[in-house]
Structures are given as C-alpha cells and as structure tokens.
Amino acid sequence: MLKAVVSKQGQVKTCGSCREARGLDKLGLIEGIQVSTMSQLAQWVMDSDKVLTF
Length: 54
Prior knowledge:
Layout: H1 2-7, E1 13-15, H2 16-21, E2 34-36, H3 38-47
Parallel strand pairs: 1-2
C-alpha cells in the first residue's frame, strides 16, 4: 500500500522515535518514505485536511 501511495506522489513519513522504540530504525525504508520527528508529524497532521493512519 505504501508503495502505491508514494508512486502517486503521496507523502509518507515515519516518526524516527517510534521506529527506534520498536527496533525498526536499523531496517531500510521503502524508497520515497521519509523519516520525520514527532514535532514535524504533529504539525503535518494539524495542517492536513485528511490523515490516514494504520
């Protein structure tokens, strides 16, 4: 699903702290996904009309 979103120029970001807490920080990301901060993600949510989470 994430590859489909990125291929259609959708933005996909992941929280670096959340990745680290779950031991995922050593894994590679799908091309086009960006690591962000919780602060940046909170601002992104506040600025958005719609947000998808899963």
